[in-house]
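Q: What changes when flavin mononucleotide is included in the input?
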Amino acid sequence: MQLTEVLQRRYATKAFDANKKLPEAVVEQLLALLRLSPSSTNIQPWHFVVASTPEGKARIAQGAGGSYSYNESKILNASHVVLFCARTQIDEAHLQKVLAAEERDGRFASAPEIKVAAHNTRLAYLNEHKFSKKDVPHWLEKQVYLNMGSFLLGAGLLGIDAVPLEGIDTAILDAQFELNARDLTAITAVALGYRADTDFNAGLPKSRLAADEIFTLI
Ligand SMILES: Cc1cc2nc3c(=O)[nH]c(=O)nc-3n(C[C@H](O)[C@H](O)[C@H](O)COP(=O)(O)O)c2cc1C
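A: The predicted holo structure follows.
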């Protein structure tokens, strides 16, 4: 399928068929999407809670009460729900974990001094956000949103229906999964599966601002 066809086909799914489950081979590819997403300096400031059981989805649905209840059935009826979490800070242990993974994966095989350079570059970026821009949590959250963007496109390419869910109570989910104690915080979620026949949104035309509104071609 052409990319533009995928972009037209994918849409924010409002009702999932609760009887349809994603095949395991598809789930593996979806997890690969989450893991292989790029991030600034490869800092990978994320964690994902992936729910596929009724109990797991019910736990995530705890964050879809009150004014977010319009999202509850999407979470409960989806095949899988991914809760995207961001690190609230980057400590030395995380930096060393990333560096060790890069070494294990062979990034420094050609010249050992590259390891020092990789660490120093990451630290310099982190310190810029810590001391100059003073926006570390925001910077880390942006990396998570970038991940979610490529995740949505990848799901579309795999022919999977999905909906991003910013309409969740992240404080409730922080408590539900004891995220803050691990320097993590819930950011957003994506529900995935197969659309229900009743989904009103499936048949609506896609709508975007006109190209000449959003592009400056020079
Ligand atoms: C960051 C983000 C958060 C969103 N949150 C919700 C949500 O909580 N519930 C929902 O039904 N749709 C949500 N959406 C879906 C958008 O409304 C939808 O993507 C937009 O209207 C464009 O339509 P399309 O995705 O069908 O092309 C969200 C989309 C994004 C990108």
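Observations recorded in class: The mean pLDDT is 97.
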